[in-house]
Model the fold of this input.
Amino acid sequence: MSLISTQNLTLVLDGQTVLENVNIAIEKGEIVTIVGPNGSGKSSLLRALIGALKPASGSVTRADGLRIGYVPQKLQIDATLPLTVQGFLNLPHRHPRAVVNDALHKAGVGDLAKRQMADLSGGQFQRVLLARALLNAPDILILDEATQGLDQPGAAAFYRQIEEVRREMGCAVLMVSHDLHVVMAASDRVLCLNGHVCCEGTPEIVADAPEYRALFGTGTQGALALYRHEHTHSHDHTHDHSNCDGAH
Done:
């Protein structure tokens, strides 16, 4: 059984249909990236997957006991609030110090426990949010444009950290991003969303698909070739095939 899947999922916000008849499935251990233009329903899909948004029709199925770690697009914290990283990670429930330290280490910021949240750089702040998502040892890590506001080297470093987390913990990763060439290089599978799933497959297949090129142009193809690396692992799932016929 998939970790999480949708069956003909349709979402309506303020009377507007933002997603229609979406069928996706996320398997154990894979990294899946959702790309699409602004307003294409990417964040709404994530909110439906975590249960924060109710489908207008269709359904979301989660594996029994599924543990989800969620990294939001952004989080506002009052800069005048005296709050250490360790204190932040212990809200609203206290965790054993070893668990907090382990999560920070997995997120690549093991030395920040005593730092003030207000003193963190953008990249450090996002890694602390990642650590928070790792506290419950998730089966799937869901990230909503978690590198927004980071420069390209910072974003690339963050995605390398995500790959390391996946290798170490064995969790699946589902992420939304605008960092097309970097994020596609780090993905096993890409879903191109524009109110529906208009294209799906490996990064190479999607980058060459007419639907993707119509949305993003051809400039990402060369960048993809530049950044793409060979994965040394394999996944036994049935979603490697292209779904780029545009017949929706």
Q: What stands out?
A: The CA atoms of residues 106 and 165 lie 6 Å apart. The longest helix spans residues 152-169.
